[in-house]
Amino acid sequence: MPPPMPSSSADPKSKFLVLVTGEIAYAEMTSTSTMYCKYFFNYGPDWRFLSGIEEGISLTATRARHHNRIVLNTQIEATFQSTNPFRWPQLVVACYGPDAFGNDVIRGYGSTHLPTVPGKTERKIPVFTPVASTVMHKLIGFFTGRRAEYVDPRIVATSEGREVTRVQTEGLITANFNVIIKDLKKYGYDCVPQSMSQASEATMPLFPDEDKPAQKYSPPPQDMPTSSVQVHYEEPEEYRPITTESDPPSNVEPYDSDQQNVHPLDEND
Amino acid sequence: MAEVHVIGEIYSAHDFPDNQLCCRWQLQTGGGWRVISGDREGQTQTDLPTTEAAYFAHPLNIHLSTRTIQGWPRINIEVWHHDQYGRQEVYGYGTAFIPSSPGEHMIDCQCWRPKGTTRDEIMQFFVGGGLQLRSISALESPAERVKLQTVAMGVVKLRISVITRYFDRFGICC
């Protein structure tokens, strides 16, 4: 079985743009009342961060008295460029807040993919903290303020190695995104069903079992005559009517209505 | 070859008898599909939440190529429960198709667990454990599903975005 064709096109100019604006609006946490959050973006090797804020920190916010939301109101703006939608960018947030003794401790990590459809999307991002492996570690962490943390928060955006971790979800962060996408359709991709009604003009890669590349308009087949070749037809024969006997047989006597020439029956009697 | 990008996450699990859960997932496709990059299977973290539902937010990034629209990919999910003694038991199985139209979709995958005899059910209530499928083929082939007796469990929510490539050139409407 031949290996599948590589998908990212060899054309170095086949880059599309994704512009994201939005905000990390508020957090609803079960046991935290004051926190701030750091955010950054995680994306694959085909992607490049063009402009915007790649890492940011929010204000420090406390829960209201009349409702239980912690309002962060942190604006996000980022422009990405890529050749391949694989490993679409993710927003990663890490929330910190003071504990009972005033130490700055981790309150939750979370991540979500940026929306792949243009327009406005609202997301609720669950945030979780790693759980200490033993009760002893949990108590030490509570009193000293050194709780279990990830060395690199980027791990929450990946899927490797997650199966051995135990975590505790502490709450949800609500984020709004507005997404603009440019030139995705030009390279053959459809991110919404409405754009499928119009065929793209991207060149498709070679299928492994065909000799010639699939083109939008196939060239005419080779054996059809072109204008330089004269087709020779034979002259038709002149039309000659089929010749029939020109005169009726002569030994037929004209009809004798008076019956005068009747041969008597008893002539040779 | 047409291509499909699956970008999304196994988001959360609701309505299970207990909320200390983790998920194993596996991608199942027909013969004409190839995974170009991304994982075919994985396991989420184990969530011991303070919230009512269990949240995984486990990222899915799969890039597939296909020469046919038959055998559209689906995700087979196993939900595992971690009880307070640290033991693990199966809390449900479920299957969901990857949506076939480009865009963002929130999918509910309803889960069930195999049901045994009355004795098995009573044992499971007091001791834990319960029945498991011997192999994942029961999720894959409908002929084997027919023989199953099951009990309903909860719902696993997945948020999946699909980006297709070259489908418009083949006259596909989806």
UniProtKB/TrEMBL annotation, chain A:
Q: Which InterPro entries match?
A: C2_B9-type_dom
Domain of life per record: Eukaryota
Q: Locate the coiled-coil region(s) and give their ranges.
A: none
List locations, semicolon-separated. Answer: Cytoplasm, Cytoskeleton, Cilium basal body
Name one process (GO BP) from the record: cilium assembly
User: Where does the secretion signal sit in this chain?
Assistant: none
Q: Would you tell me the Gene Ontology cellular component terms?
A: MKS complex
Keywords assigned by UniProt, alphabetized = Cell projection, Cilium biogenesis/degradation, Cytoplasm, Cytoskeleton
Main location (coarse class)? cytoplasm
Instruction: Name the segments for region: Disordered.
Output: 205-269
Which PROSITE patterns does this UniProt record tie to the protein? C2_B9
* Pfam families per UniProt: B9-C2
Which family does the record claim for this protein?
Belongs to the B9D family.
Q: PANTHER family, alphabetically?
A: B9 DOMAIN-CONTAINING, B9 DOMAIN-CONTAINING PROTEIN 1
What is the protein name for this chain?
B9 domain-containing protein 1
Q: Name the species this protein comes from.
A: Panagrellus redivivus (Microworm)
From TrEMBL, chain B:
Q: Keywords, A to Z?
A: Cell projection, Cilium biogenesis/degradation, Cytoplasm, Cytoskeleton
Q: Which InterPro entries match?
A: C2_B9-type_dom
List, in alphabetical order, the GO biological process terms annotated in this UniProt record.
cilium assembly
Mostly located where? cytoplasm
Alphabetical list of Pfam families matching this protein: B9-C2
Any one annotated GO CC term = MKS complex
Q: Where in the cell is it found?
A: Cytoplasm, Cytoskeleton, Cilium basal body
Q: Which domain of life is it from?
A: Eukaryota
Similarity remark: Belongs to the B9D family.
Q: What is this protein called?
A: B9 domain-containing protein 2
State the organism of origin: Panagrellus redivivus
